[in-house]
Amino acid sequence: QVQLVESGGGSVQAGGSLRLSCTVSGDTFNTVCMGWFRQAPGKEREGVATIYTGGSIYRHSVKGRFTISQDNAKNTVYLLMNSLNPEDTGMYYCAASQYEICRTTMTSLNFGFWGQGTQVTVSS
After folding, report:
1. How far apart are CA 79 and CA 71, in angstroms?
2. What DSSP string describes 47-68?
3. How confident is the model at residue 116 (pLDDT cuts 50, 70, 90)?
């Protein structure tokens, strides 16, 4: 089992920045990818960014604005979000995948462990 706890969400104005953190614990030996997903009211959950050894994947709409990183010494994954806009509003979830396919496909079905989420609200 892998336990994930997110923090760092909040309310910001358009153009602002936030950094989300995800503290990871438990049996992480088989983890291949860590990812951030988001879900807006009335919409499906969508992948935002994924990180694995040697690389990362970003959703097209966040490329150049968001940066995913991890600090193995602190067992923490980060999502730095710059130039936020109202379309970035949603609940942000941290997730872990034990499947190799997560290196090429950012699909929530490939992630078996999830945090409770942290809310991000961007006002215009």
Report:
1. 12
2. EEEEEETTEEEE-GGGTTTEEE
3. very high
